[in-house]
Fold these 2 entries.
Entry 1:
Amino acid sequence: MAAQRNLEVVYARHSRSVYRRALRLLGDAEAARDATQEVFVRVLRAGGEVPVEPTPTAWLYRVTTNLCLNRLRDRNRQEALLAANYVGADIAPAAAEARAALRQLLARIPEDLHEVAVYFFVDELTYDEIAPLLQVSRRTVSNRLAAFRTLVAELSSERRSAS
Amino acid sequence: MIPRPTPRRGLACPSDLDLDELLARDLAEANEARLRGHLEGCADCRARLAAFTAVEPPGWEEISARQPSFSRPARPRRWLPALGVATAALAALVLVARPRPTPGPGARTKGTLALTVIVKRATGGVETLTDGAPLRAGDEIRFSAASAKPGYAVVLGLDAAPAVTVYLPASGATPVAVAAGSGQVLPGSIVADATPGTERLVLLRCDAQPEAPLLRETAARALAAAGGRPERVGPLGTGCDETSVLVHKAPPR
């Protein structure tokens, strides 16, 4: 009972940011409503409590982000999200053709690099903002983004050689 | 450095996460002050914040209906909704309504908001409760408000469990609007059960449509600060006008 009571309070305070974030990532109101519900199911399982580190909102942000990335079962949609926001040395984001190419490349990149890429390219968070969110060092953030970019560059090079 | 598209926010501007933390009141005082200072001078960020607050998430009622595990099991209540009460206990209760002592900061009560408790006796007859008037289990209570300003009414019960109950608006019901004026009988009623104890009934008048769970949380903090004793609860500090009566339900004589 205490968990449900806590949950209602947490919901009143944070549902707007969770829903808005899900809507931003999923681009579909009904899917965002489902995702919002699922996020708070997880809160309920945790006793209706939200960790205060780094902040409750940041914790929910991350849960929502990972849940939405998982919900984008159609990898094309996940890749489209990143492709629309990514700019690399070799690929200009403006051209639809280039974005399509980038989506193909992103499909070959490990998913665990997608989360940090979303924070950097989609949310425009800085290294210093991403580090506490992921609860890793700034260097780790830098390394993961570098690994992401290196993979994109390598795969882009492979693609050009093949064509 | 990793290149990325032209930023949508300025270098000194807060991130979306910062704005969400501000709205959720997650930030430390110094960070919140710094952020609010930036907002005062940045029209773009004020527009971003306005766009955030314009987003309407699914309501609690919708989400809890879709997810049954979100619903709380019913807890024993000191007051029962008027509908569906099948039995009345025999115990006699005494209800004493008296104005709250001197209002503190945040309680703008005198002359702006008043609460009258109307009782329909189980044995027949309707009267306005006065100090020391006996209230028996089964008596039905309604609330009447007088307000200097229009707004939305909320009635909370703070009991010695300690717990806070939202009596008005009823769960799932639409917000209850009040006009400027007196003698406004609020919708719904509650029926006294036989459980003895003390409870503070608080009437709030809010300018905007209230979020009942947040008000309940605020009231719960005030009740906790008073050691769980309703008679010691000070102003709730909700930002709404408030007034209250203290109800003492004594055991049968």
Entry 2:
Amino acid sequence: MSRPAVSAARRRRIAGENVLAYLFLLPAFVILLVFHFLPGFAAVYMSLFRWDVVQGTFRGLENYQTVLVGSRAQEFWQSLSTTLTYTVITVPLELAISLILAYLLFQKMRGRGIYRTLYYLPYITATVAAAVVFTWLMNPNYGFFNTVLEAIGIGPQKWLDEPRGLFELVFGAFGVALPAWAAGPSLALVAVAIFTVWHFIGFQVVIFLAGLGNISTEYYEAARLDGATERQLFTKITLPLLSPTTFFLATVATIGALKAFNQVYVLTNGGPLDTTRVLGYEIFHVFFQQGRIDLGATMAVILTLIILLFTLFQFRIGERRVHYS
Amino acid sequence: MRLKLAMIAAVMVVASACSGTSNTPAQSTQADIDLTGPVAITLWHTQTGVNAKALQDSVDKFNQTNGKGITLTLQYQGSYTQLYQKTLSAIQAGALPELAVGYESFVSDYQKADVCLNLDPYVQSAKNGLSKASQDDIYKGYFDTNRFPQFGNQLLSFPFTKSHLITYQNDDILKEIGKPTPKTWDEFEATARAAVKKGPDGKPIRYGWSAVTSASIFNGWVLSRGGKLMADDNKTVAWDGKEAVEAVKLFDKLLKDGVAYVPKGFDYQTDFGSGRVLFVPESSSGRPFYKLSFKQPINWSITSIPQTDPAKPRTVQYGANIIVFKSTPEKQLASWLFVKWFTEKDQTADWAIKSGYMAVRKSAAETDILKASWGKDDPQGKQAFELIGTSIPEPNARGQQDIRTVIEDLLTAVAAGKVTDIDKAVKDAGAKANQILKDNQ
Amino acid sequence: MTPSALARPPAFPRVRGRTVFKHMALAAVAVVISFPFYWMITTALKSFFEATQFPPTLFPQEVHLENFATAWGDAPWTRYFTNTVIIAVLVTVGEFVTSILAAYAFARMTFKGKNLIFIIFLATLMIPSEAELIPNFVLVTRYLRIANTLQVQVIPFLASVFSIFLLRQHFLSIPSELSDAARIDGAGHVRFLRSVVLPLSVPVLVTVGLITSLQVYDSFLWPLLVTSSDAVRPIQIGMSQFRSEFGAQYHLEMAAATFVIAPIVILFLFAQRYIIQGVARTGIRG
């Protein structure tokens, strides 16, 4: 089969465009290569050796064995489970609250801009400073949170220092002792989640508002003519037509939750009783507190694979389920 | 692709070059050299606020007066944890400073890379070292804690910010309840109970004991009951015996009875200052911060923690040391000369007054400045100083940092009411600690 | 998502009679969300004793403005603020260059391996940053020899996949008639980019610049690791000094938090139109 004839000039132009495009990409590519990809490869490399503060002998995949089924398995799976719990708390909560707020905000009303600004402020607030403020709010002795609890007749809580489970505490208040498996996430983890929800909600609201703006008003007008109720409008039109936005936000929030580190670093340092030691923090801890470069790198590689798999999986589902208008 | 490979190769080179500087020439000669020409050295530290300023003043003085062309630069590196994390990275990159502050457990980790300088030759050097009398002037415990059995008993660091576990005691409350300072743990329990005051709603408004849950305090509980922290061969822990069980049971009982509570962060200082608690067993170095939290002046003193045998009081030694990293002979000597100068009588007294840490030399007590300070602002500093001899170093084997976490987890679990069988919990914690020691051999 | 969707107040769905209820709900949430800021500022104004009083006072009984001066004196804040501004400006300018070029290539040029390269760019977002710390530290310290400088806080951030993505979306929306016309006039890519695309992109560039600056302002762990002296340290390091090993001076912590947070809040209030639009367009989550 012969190719369609292409003029020499056109071929030159295509070649020229190729070269120019690569030149355009080069600066960004070099930076990403040096500061993101190389460290990624270095992590893989480090995970193949014994590397306890200093590099030792080549160990092949032994570190992976240690982490997944060996002496570090319990702590690894524990932190993975904490990560998933944290994800399951924060993502739906963020999405639900922000969807409701966006829906309420999405109409002609006075003060709309002010609300949006106020909701958005936490998102731009520097994490360390915000964490200092939350640590103070949640102080067990002098904190404002406990003042509120006191006012509504609940005893003071230790918040970020409380390793006991949420359900354990709630049922415990009524004198019901729960078995260990039903204790629920520690109050400390819930407190970190509260901070996260507070921090990110404004971002989600803004994206939902944009998504709502993309739904044509004609759908609603037609449905109204057919006598649809408000509830029907929301469930039959808004939710399905908003699904690409919801899907996008769910993906971003989930990846963010799986990689969570900053919140834990500034609020709890993984404690109390390791109940907030998510995988991102565990990696940091193994790297920097234990000097086990090998095991930290191994866990980092595994976490990257988990995020990769999750992303592929979510896009698969996304392709099938999400309603693109 | 080739670029990528080159980069990976570069990373590998970095990796293999990380095994530390392996210069171990005869150090007896290195310690005796002369310094010619200017030497610039850097110290990584963690001091903030008033202490940072005091340290800077001291260093300025050293730079002006050392007469050997040594210029020391101070660099603040965040908290101890952050400094430790950074030093581990610096070992990977081969970019250590000449000096850094750190705990004994840090040294054990750093020494995996063989980067810490053995200070013995410097101490013993006829030319630049310390005389026998001068060595004896420094508390023995302060030397002991910086010797590492794991590394041939070398002196790998030097005392810097030392303190020890003592009890802060509110004398006004003691007078009110008509009791003397408790000497034994039994008396401590009874006195703490007597101090409890409840509000109209039945909630305690005054506690007997602010029980900070740190591993060091736990070690103090064990030591004061006559227990040991490590087995003689340094291969297993010894704190998991009957002393610990007794201590944890007391902790548990007094928490449950509302006599004790576990404070958050440094809140125990505020609680003490506002008369909300009678006893706070904590580090002696916190004195300046307690004083900040006094709304009205109160009568208070520093006493020994309770003992099983008050005739032979024992408590736990706290605090960081200063580490000299291997570099060039000139920089090493310059670093040592600073360490030596800083721990001399006058300087250590000055530092003790300004920072609240202990002076490391017995002779510091004779200095006019320390006498004046004790006489006027800081009588409690004297009370603490007199207890230095009772303080015993904590273990410094590698893995000690993780063992501390094991201990603190045990106490947190007890405080959260998650432990039903304390004997078993202590045994389990000990087994966990022994496993950590084994993993770190 | 078009920016106009945000700018134009939507006319639906209008629920009559429930407006009051909605205002109450929205206002309640707004109070809850902004409360930490209120608490921060009021604690910053209290004396140490009032701050540690339980139950706490909702309004400061005495106003202690000197707390701000005390907190300001506890760290070299002027230096930190200056450094942060310098770093933010350098990162923003540099990122403009790399992102505009890369985004233009992805949006308006055809070349071999375009999709693959784009995916590779996006893939960098999945690597957990904790894993990158040690290799990057070794790289900048041992090989690039730029540890403890301002550059080391600039160079690694000179390319941002987020900014590239945001600009690409915008460049894609420029009508193809314009590029066709330019080509007929004999203008190449460079000239088209300079004289047509950039002038049309000023708002979105402002967005990119602001978001980048906010991220620089927030950076903490990397500067902590790679800087050793105050001469080159940024603002968040100063904030972390207040969480030191001793003492619980909550009123001073809050005073420091207040002046650390204030500049970005002010910046945001002036420029929120750009920030919110940019975020809405791409979903940048920092």
